[in-house]
Task: inverse folding
């Protein structure tokens, strides 16, 4: 099914005379961190796939599978840079179809379905998970980061309420609500 989608999209990226647009204008194969069409000439194209960097077994398997495609003459993959150089019969294939084949063979369809994840966001989530584990271990299992944050919000709310001699709405009340909602949500998830 994905190959068919790739073929249809390849047709969409052709102009009226049957010539392919410049490779760098194709949004399909200019997704940093996923796949980039570096250059394309009739019968030869180069893709950059960061997922292949350092993956010798995956590179060898991919090269073998690409050469099984009818019309592909040669597939050279550099595992150090993640570069895939393909030579092919230009009368039977084009760079867009080969790009779609690469996406399918490597299971990168998720990136094209809109479920992309920014590397900075992923790193921040991993950092937060590590911090959570560190707090948990440091407190001997008494607190995790979520509980510590909720208790901190409660302390700030109480301090503000005592300083103002009343619950100042919305600041201290909001902090209390966040703390309660966070603690209750944790209980609901554990049940």
Result:
């Amino acid at each position: 099914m994905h190959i068919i989608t790739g073929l249809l999209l390849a047709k969409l990226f052709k102009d009226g005379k049957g010539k392919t647009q410049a490779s760098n204008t194709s949004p399909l194969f200019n997704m940093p961190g996923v796949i980039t069409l570096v250059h394309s000439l009739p019968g030869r194209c180069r893709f950059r796939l960061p997922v292949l960097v350092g993956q010798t077994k995956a590179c060898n398997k991919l090269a073998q599978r690409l050469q099984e495609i009818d019309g592909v003459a040669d597939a050279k993959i550099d595992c150090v840079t993640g570069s895939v150089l393909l030579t092919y019969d230009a009368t039977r294939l084009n760079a867009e179809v080969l790009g779609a084949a690469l996406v399918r063979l490597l299971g990168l369809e998720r990136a094209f379905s809109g479920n992309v994840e920014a590397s900075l966001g992923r790193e921040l989530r991993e950092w937060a998970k590590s911090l959570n584990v560190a707090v948990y271990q440091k407190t001997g299992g008494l607190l995790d980061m979520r509980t510590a944050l909720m208790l901190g919000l409660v302390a700030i709310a109480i301090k503000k309420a005592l300083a103002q001699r009343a619950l100042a709405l919305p600041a201290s009340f909001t902090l209390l609500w966040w703390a309660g909602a966070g603690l209750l949500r944790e209980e609901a998830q554990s049940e």
